Amino acid sequence: MKEWLKHKYGFINIDDENVYVTKTGNWSEVSGLKEKNYKPFKFADFRTKLKIGIYLFIVFGIILFGFISNILSGNISLLIIVGLPVLGYTAFQYIIPEFGSSFVIPKNKITDIRTDESDLYIEFLDANDQNTSNIFRSLDQKGLKTINKVKDATNIN
After folding, report:
1. Which residues have C-beta within 8 Å of that of residue 154, sequence separation ≥ 6?
2. In terms of CATH architecture, what is 3-36+103-153?
């Protein structure tokens, strides 16, 4: 069984042995994933935050430049007033998967799976055998059905 589903910040890939949380949903990405492990500081997370900060700085810089040049020229264009916020929203939708994390959850370490409307709650033991939980938001109906199949197959509450 190989299934995948989309959530707000990325994808969940599921096979017979593991549940993979990825940013892209690409199956080639799952081979290098490790179990979730609590670390107070990870350089990869810093690099991701830096990349997001640079994207946001560039987008807001372009929006601010557009508004200022539009006001200084004396021509207040409707295209600029509407277009720049749309550009900002589009850039945000492009960047949002970068907020997600990537890790693997072995199915035998999952202790509880719950769904609530379009949200998924998974409790599991991490790499240090500490009880950990994750919430995945904005799953579609196909994703919720897939999770229920996984829940039934793993005999979890």
Report:
1. 107, 110, 113
2. Roll (2.30)
Q: Do residues 32 and 123 lie in contact, with contact meaning Cβ atoms separated by under 8 Å? A: no
Model pTM above 0.85: no
Break the chain into its structural domains and give their ranges.
Answer: 3-36+103-153, 43-98
Q: Tell which wins on pLDDT, 19 or 94.
A: 19
Reference 102, options 155, 30, 8, 150; nearest CA is 30
* 139, 120 Cβ separation under 8 angstroms: yes
Confirm if 5 and 139 have CB atoms less than 8 A apart: yes
Check pLDDT > 60 for residue 40: no
| Stretch 43-56: mean pLDDT | 73
Residue (of 46, 5, 24) closest to 94 by Cα position: 24
